[in-house]
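tool_call: predict_structure(chain=1)
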Amino acid sequence: MVLLKPKSRFKILRFLWGENFRIHLDEKGSFVWGLLDGTHSVKEIARKLGEKFSLENPLESTQNFLAALYRGGFLEFREKY
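tool_result:
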């Protein structure tokens, strides 16, 4: 899976630099991305990731990945109501 992010909000800069950054996700990243639909908690995603890939510490891996996506502007966190 490949995530696209505009390099700039200004058309002239996108023309000069190219349209998008391309972020290639591996199998684990693609799996997590598929669960980011607003219905799963971080703990649920980590549990499913750990089950599928037999990870030792899936919660830490999930948190690190989500933090990287957040820093990159690919997602935002909301409290569950």
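agent: The chain is about 50% helix and 10% strand. Proceeding to next step.
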